Amino acid sequence: MIDWLTEPFTLQFMQRALAASLIVGVVCSVLGCFVVLRSMAFLGDALAHAILPGIAVAYLLGVNLMAGALVAALVVAFGIGLFSREGTIREDTAIGILFAAALSLGVLLISTVRTYATDLTHILFGNVLGVTGADLWLTGGLAALVLVVLLVLYKEFVLAAFDPVLAHTLGRRPELMRSLMLVLLALTIVVSLQTVGVGLVAAMLVTPAATASLLTRRLPAMMAVSATVGALSSVVGLYLSYYLDVASGAAIVLTATALFVAAFLVAPRRGLVWRRRGRRATA
Amino acid sequence: MNGPGAGRATGDSVLLIDDLRVGYNGLPALDGVSLTVPHGAQVAVVGPNGAGKSTLFKAIVGLLRPQRGRVLVHGRPPGDQTDPVAYVPQREEVDWRFPVTVADVVLMGRYGRLGPLKRPQPADREAVRRALEQLAITDLAGRPIGELSGGQQQRVFLARALAQEPHVLLLDEPFTGVDVNAKEAVLELLQSLRAKSITVLVSTHDMETASQRFELVALLNGRLIAYGPPAAVFTPAHVSDAFGGQALFLDGMVVIDQCCPGHVGDGTGHRHEHDHRPELWHRHGEGREAP
Question: Does a structural domain hold residue B66?
């Protein structure tokens, strides 16, 4: 049994994969609490797809893919902010337009390369087994940055998320906090690129946080539970990927989904089973 | 404008509104509103749904910028003064599923005194404790806000406003959608604020309460129709001006239909005769204030 658990991680690339998956699982899940509470799931997904052209350009130029993604993500984050502030189009419409256009541009650029299909698959769904030592350092550094900013400004993020009107009357700038949240979201998506890819990062942002919201009643607890669910999904998903020889990003996301379904069914007070039973008891 | 008391440049008035035009997307919801509120006064802002009551409040706290005219609080534009203005929004504007407890919400009232990086201090905890106590919700401190009744939810936001230690308090429709006890709790709180000389503006379409419990009434409908003591404001001419086809006068009584314009005098009766029957008032109007 112990051998069964330790065997995959005697391989160095698997060690790196585990480290990267854990980092991504935790940072996505913690930031994801705000994504869920602010109903930014669509925005997160769009942002993830919208960085594809950045990756493509970096790929074509032969520079670090994450650096390309980072630049693109920041540009798109501010672009969406600008669009929605003008107020002439609804935000979800603006996101939809940007999302599709950027995805197309990314695919178009990547299609100029001969190994198109493989490369696109890696970008869309991640290739955690290909994480290099340098990638790992960049991933860890950016993830730490996101978590530190979130921790230091926690009170301000909660205020702006829960009650932007109060924030405003207290002399704060809630729209500034929203922009900062978009930047953190962009960084998190970049961090997640190699593990789950742009196609699945939205799931890691939303699913563990949604699971935690069923199990907790206060935000700090929600963030802690979400981080645990995210980390657990990463580890379990990676084992599944190793032993069943399936795509790692998809295995991680489906593990998280399974945990969500379990919580949805049996969560105390809010789970389906609990509510059914409660209804029968009162009937 | 730097010395002590410089903010009181407008004499005894805490709030000065001068020829205000304000609204959304360039269209005015309120136009030509001018009024001054003396220090410590309690003003009922009355008007039909969509009259611009919430809009006026949003202009006073600086959420909406004037398209014309100006708003001065203690002689300064909104957001500029050190004396906080506390705004209690309508309950529909709050995300009740947000995972915060009653104590968390009330503590947010202290954030204005804390810098962005500063953690709450013992003095802030103490202010929260006092505010919870004053609203008699100390035992709810650890409860998530989503598990509260309507009246309790309102008390939480009133407690938060008290924790802000404001000089001006704006309550948006505090009597809408709550039971008689919750309404009495708000009125009792207003009584205690009177002793502290806190200036209060309350929006409502409850003319009964406005005329009995407030010394000043501002009657609105897209513009300021009348402003002054209730007896001077609630004249048949002013009321029909504000409520239009919704107001009907029968033997000295005013009948208001808050439901549907033109749907008046159908015999179901929303009578007003200063007769202690507030439950007849806005049976159709509950919670239908336009956002």
Answer: yes
**CB distance B102 to B137 below 8 Å:** yes
Expressed as residue numbers, the domain containing B123 is: 6-235
The reply to whether B177 falls in a domain is yes
Confidence tier at B81 by pLDDT (50, 70, 90)? low
Could you tell me which CATH number the domain at A2-282 has?
1.10.3470.10
* pLDDT, tens digit, 9 for 90 and up, residues A229-252: 999 999 999 999 999 999 888 999
The structural domain count of chain B equals 1
- Whether B250 is covered by a domain: the verdict is no
**Per residue in B201-259, pLDDT tens?**
999 988 888 988 999 999 999 999 999 999 999 888 888 888 876 766 665 566 666 55
pTM for the whole thing? Answer: 0.82
Q: Is the dihedral of CA A276, A278, A280, A282 positive or negative?
A: negative
Helices A12-37 + A219-244 axis angle, to 10: 140
**Which of residues 46 through 105 in chain B touch A, CB cutoff 8 A?**
61-63, 79, 84-87, 89, 93-95, 98-101, 104-105
Question: Is B98 in contact with A170 (Cβ distance < 8 A)?
Answer: no
| Within a domain: B200 | yes
B199's enclosing H/E stretch is strand B199-204
